[in-house]
Amino acid sequence: SQKIEQNSEALNIQEGKTATLTCNYTNYSPAYLQWYRQDPGRGPVFLLLIRENEKEKRKERLKVTFDTTLKQSLFHITASQPADSATYLCALVPFWGGYNKLIFGAGTRLAVHP
Amino acid sequence: NAGVTQTPKFQVLKTGQSMTLQCAQDMNHNSMYWYRQDPGMGLRLIYYSASEGTTDKGEVPNGYNVSRLNKREFSLRLESAAPSQTSVYFCASSETALAEGNEQFFGPGTRLTVL
To answer: Chain A closest CA to B62's CA: distance in Å?
Structure first.
């Protein structure tokens, strides 16, 4: 069956450390992956996109990697701050389906402690 | 520039009642989407509209209908609400179809409880 899996357990880290979140997928051929941030009671907000022919993308303190062999994307936040505490969602657009469907993982909650 | 707006923010229905969730975007986007989000599950696509005048089913369309009223507005209707439809509903829009790699912009959500 097709699945997108993110760690359901919250990730707790100390301020200043690097947070690494994992997104694994099964039986999809992604055209690209997107990462979103969601704060409690609010809609998701887009952060980064990485295409299937790209290995790495960076934006300020954020870095995303994409390994189509491992079927995995890693999302890194360097020099993390308490304000980075939120739920992070990965989503992919598969090659099939007319590129109109974004398939989401359930998200991983990140808590950054002072 | 309000982005994506949704009304109402909260709603409580009794089983069998009907209601329409409203969504509007002011970014001149072509594509619009309706999702539901349940605890422990990812956002699941209910219906989408790739462009004005077209609508298509997503992953979980049963029990819902949609109308793309014009380029700005995309409504979601529950004809006969059921407790299984208790969820948080999000509307989203993107500039064009996702083939372009476009990000989706989300509204603040509607929290619906069906008793």
So the answer is: 17
